[in-house]
Amino acid sequence: MGEAERETRRLIEIMARLRDPEGGCPWDLEQDFRSIAPYTIEEAYEVADAIDRQDWEGLQGELGDLLLQAVYHARLAEEAGLFDFAAVARSVADKMIARHPHVFGDVGIRTAEQQTAAWEARKAEERQGRTLDGVALALPALQRAAKLQARAARVGFDWPDAGAVLAKIAEEAREVAEAEGPEAREEEIGDLLFAMANLARHLGVEPETALRRACAKFERRFAAVEDELARRGRSPAQSDLAEMDAIWNELRAAERVSRQGAAES
Q: NTP pyrophosphohydrolase MazG-like domain location, by residue (predicted)?
C-alpha cells in the first residue's frame, strides 16, 4: 500500500471515529447530508480562491478540506447502508475510463475539441433524458445559467455569435429601465443577468469566476480608498462621493500604468 492509500485510509478511519456513537464527537454525530452540504460548497470555493491567489501552500490545505467533505458524505451514506467511500472512488474511476476511450480504449481522438465533443456525447448518452436534466439546482446562479445555456446550445438553441447576445443585453437593459414594481424589476434584472452569463459563455469566460474576481478587485480598491482617506485624516463617512470617486479613478489609472509596465517588461 502506497502513502496515498495509507493516508486516505487513515482519514476514513478518523471520520469513522468522529461518527462513533460511543465516544465520537458530539457535533459530528449531529450532522447529516443536508447540514454538511453548505460546508462542501464553501470548501470548493476556498479551493478556487486559493488557486486564484496562487497560494499553493494554502491550496494543499483547502484540497484536504474538500477531500474531508467527500469522506464525510461517504461515511453518512455508509451508515445509512447506501454506499461507502470505495464505491464513490470506484464509480468515478469507472466513469473516467468510460469517458476516455481514446486513452483506455482504441478510439482515435487527436485534439481537445474532438475530446470535448466525445465527452459531451457520452454524457448525453448517460443522461438519456431531457436536454436540461441534471444541471444541479445548488450551483451558483450565474454558473447554472451558463450550464443551462451550454446544454441548449448543443441542440442548436443558441445565439449565432456574441454580437447577437450584446443586442439582447441592450434590449434587456431597456426592459429593466421600463419595469414598474418590485416583481417586474426582479424578473427583468434576472433576464439581464441571464443574458450576461450567455455573453460570458460566448466569449469563453466563466461568469462565476469573472464576478468573483470583480468582487475581489472592488474590495481591494475600496480598501485602498479607505487607506487614502485615513492618510488624509478622514473616514468614508466623513468624505463624500466626489472625493471617493476621484481617489478611485486615481487608483484605476495607477493600476493600468502598472499593468502596462509589467506587460512591457
A: 31-104, 165-221
